[in-house]
Amino acid sequence: MQGKEPRARRRTFLWVGTALALALAATAGWMVLRAQSLGGSAAATPFESLPEPPPYDLGLAVDHLSRAVAIQTVTTVAGDPQPSAEGPWLEFHALIDQTYSAISARASFETIAGLTRLYTWQGTDETLAPVILMAHQDVVPVNPGTEKDWSFPPFSGAVAPPPGGGDDHVWGRGAMDDKGSLIAILEAADALARAGWAPNRTIMFLFGHDEEVSGAGAQAAFRLLAEREVKPYLVLDEGFAVLSNFPLTGKPAALIGVAEKGYLSVEITATTEGGHSSRPPRESGAVRIARAISALDENQLPADLTAPPFTEMIDAVAQDLPFATRLAFANRWAFSGLIEGQLTDPSANAIVRTTTAPTMLEGSVKDNVLPQRARAVVNFRIHPRDTIESVLQHVRDVTAHIDGLTIAPYRDGIGSEASPVSSTTGDAWSKLRSVAHAAGGGGDLPVAPGLMIAATDARYASAISTDAVYRFIPAIYDDADLNGFHGTNERLSVANLRRMIDAYAQLMMVTAGG
Predict the structure, then answer these.
(1) Using an 8 Å Cβ cutoff, are 257 and 451 in contact?
(2) How far apart are the C-alpha atoms of 338 and 251, rounded to whole Å?
(3) Catalytic residues
(4) Three-class SS state of 318
(5) Is residue 160 included in any domain, yes or no?
(6) What is the pLDDT of residue 22?
(7) pTM, whole model, 2 decimals?
(8) Rounded to 5 degrees, what are φ and ψ at 435?
(9) How many Cα atoms within 13 Å fall on the side-chain side of residue 32?
(10) Does the pLDDT at position 72 exceed 60?
(11) Whole domain around residue 424: which residue ranges?
(12) Which three-class secondary structure string do you get for 221-252?
């Protein structure tokens, strides 16, 4: 009997081991199949055919953008332009009025909030929901002292190749952000009007005057449209573009923003007695602020790998992902920790969570005086899974162990919730997706939805639509181009200006008929 027990035990272990091996093999095979099928439906969705854009003079379009860039519509703080400083905007409006006579003769416009312009190109069928194309007139300032670092003066509107050679670009602040879009939209509309094309569906052009500081103009415009009960077919603003080097794949991809993050700055204050620095207490106000910042940095808000638009973006670019990466994303239940560990790139990290960024610090006015009031401002860009209130609660919870702190929204900050996530199914998305694909050269180029990590005027469009607001510029940008956004040597290639005019014209033609 004693000899039989070990044999029976060995047989049991053998069966259990075999069963586990088979289960592991089956699981591994199932995981591989999931990786192979990841993104299959996105890749199989066909793109629509597009009409030929109308003829236009690209040389004149380049000149128009050059002249627009030379007008210094700079905003620095909310409320800009200040009273009596509206001159550049009025000059810009005059340029538009004089340049685009064909569309001006067919579209009416109204001025909102002083300088924002809303154009309406009335369609023949008033029962159809309108298309709204957006851009903004203002630009960020050039950092003082960096003017000499520009290849061409930042408000010259120079038309020239890069110093190392290449194609012509329009150089200057606003060429990419966002006068390039504004001029391209008007060039496309004017060309369509000159060609005798007229829309069935009403087309609106909304050009905010202060997007870079508050977006009050666009906010007022969408409030007005909401009062008029306008329900749009599609709203398109600046945002993503065709990236020649998409970080996840190292290959080209077109990204369309279907949502954007919210914005909140939190002020953390520690009030203490102060005094002479020769007799410092163990925990001064400055130390408490330092501990609070450290705690927030070490306790980031959680990432979300399961919610759109992140999941849809991965599906759309899956065919270009390395197999190991596809395996991980197809089986997030098993590899979520590994994936999060790899999201060390700031841009990738910003896509999957609410980010925490200490930006302002304040203490004493003298090096030997303890501050009676130490303060920090921490900026959060809010993921759609979070809200302003949940972020505030996170700050309270993470710093609860530190005595003497006051936590409140920053008094001079902009508070906005994350936008709704727009649809990636349906007619409007299909047409925009097809235009983006063509702008990027077609072929095997993937078109993916994405989450905008910066703020645009489109965030205010949620007043009239929760599922048809998109953010995309029909241009191809490489890493050098992207460095120009709010930076030195901002420029737009003539080739990209042509792509943008063609794409905006095609988008109007396929969405508004005619």
Answers:
(1) yes
(2) 23
(3) 138, 211
(4) helix
(5) yes
(6) 60
(7) 0.90
(8) -65, -40
(9) 6
(10) yes
(11) 58-260+419-512
(12) HHHHHHHCCCCCCEEEEEEEEEEEEECCCCEE
Q: What is the DSSP string of 435-452?
A: HHHHHTTSTT--EEEEEE
Backbone dihedral region of 405: left (phi > 0), alpha (psi from -120 to 50 degrees) or beta? Answer: beta
- Cis peptide leading into residue 232 (ω within 30°): no
Residue 13 sits at the vertex; the CA angle it makes with 7 and 18, to the nearest 5 degrees, is 125
Same structural domain, 384 and 476: no
The more confident residue out of 320 and 138 is 138
Does residue 57 surpass a pLDDT of 60? yes
Query: What CA–CA distance (Å, rounded) separates 378 from 119?
Result: 38
Q: What is the pLDDT of residues 474-513, one digit of tens each?
A: 999 998 898 888 899 999 999 999 999 999 999 999 999 9
Residues 274 and 216 in one domain: no
| Pair (269, 368) in one structural domain | yes
Which CATH number covers residue 344? 3.30.70.360
The per-residue pLDDT of the chain, averaged, comes to 91
Count of residues in the chain: 514
Do residues 267 and 239 both lie within one domain? no
Question: Last residue of some domain: 354, 389, 409?
Answer: 409
Q: If you compute the radius of gyration of the chain from its CA atoms, what whole number of angstroms results?
A: 27
DSSP-derived secondary structure letter, 416: B
CA–centroid distance for 150 within its chain:
25
Burial of residue 126 (number of CB atoms within 10 Å: 0-12, 13-18, 19+): exposed
**HSE, side-chain direction, 13 A CA sphere, residue 245:** 5
The sign of the dihedral angle between the CA atoms of 385, 239, 77, 365 is: positive
Q: What is the mean predicted confidence (pLDDT) over 96-120? A: 97
Q: Mind listing the pLDDT tens digit for each residue in 271-311?
A: 988 887 888 888 899 999 999 999 999 999 998 888 889 88
- Both tokens of 336, joined, read 């979520």
Across the strands, what pairs with 476? 242
3-state SS record for 331-344: CHHHHHHHHHHHCC
Cα-Cα-Cα-Cα torsion 394, 264, 359, 240, nearest 10 degrees, comes to 120
Residue 189 forms part of a structural domain? yes
**3-state percent breakdown (helix, strand, coil) of the chain, nearest 5:** 40, 20, 40
Q: Name the β-bridge partners of 409.
A: 266
